[in-house]
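Question: Now follow the chain.
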Amino acid sequence: MSFQPVIPLSGLGGWAFLNATRESQTDAFERSPRISRDTAYFETTIGDITSAKELVSDRRLLRIALGAFGLQDDLDNRFLIRRVLEGGVTREDALANKMSDERYKSMAEAFGFGDGGTPSTQRAGFGAEITERYRQISFEVAVGDQDESLRLALNAERALAEIVSEPSQSQDALWFRIMGTPPLRRVFEVALGLPESFAQLDLDKQLEVFKERSESQLGIAQLADLADAETMDTLVERYLLRNQVAGMQRQSSNAIALTLLQQATGRF
């Protein structure tokens, strides 16, 4: 059995505990037998893979490849994953470019099976790059098995750091990546107090609201501001606090509804 992270509290309290113990807990998790075996297998085997067909045919390799991009739930969707990988990302009509979830595009771009030339699996160090991502995201998933909000907070720290480190893309392009990545989008929606119906708005209007509220509520004038630790902390802590308050409100509403039901039942 893999090491399970210790999360004794929820919300901001759980986040503070996790940060205080993150180094030791991450180290123990990554040294667990399953993670060690999986990453060793991937690093020693991926160099033999030269096509998407070969990758999806090896369930163990595919599990690690998907896990490295947060797509572990798609393990049984091998036909879809093969099409995404074989289509690459350079053509406008590539399947990865048509999908609303940006993680598929990131995976297709990383493996490079569909854009001509030599796939990334033949590049020295590629296996280690993927297993590093796999370790990080697997730890986030393990945390999420106990507290989903803390998983999303961990994911936001890691994924946003990757996004803001790509200055070659325009601000709007980077925002669209955030909006098209479900875990990141959720953190921003909650932190900014956006309703569930927000996703039904026109995409350009959503972008406008994301940018305006991020600046007014979080002090994010441009996404590069998230490289500042205090700004990132503000985003994550605001998300966790709002999420915790919403959870308490749901519990109170359920308790009131139960009380009213019991009272009504007692009258008949």
Remarks:
- Confidence is low (pLDDT under 50) at residues 260-268.
- Residues 229-266 form the longest helix (38 residues).
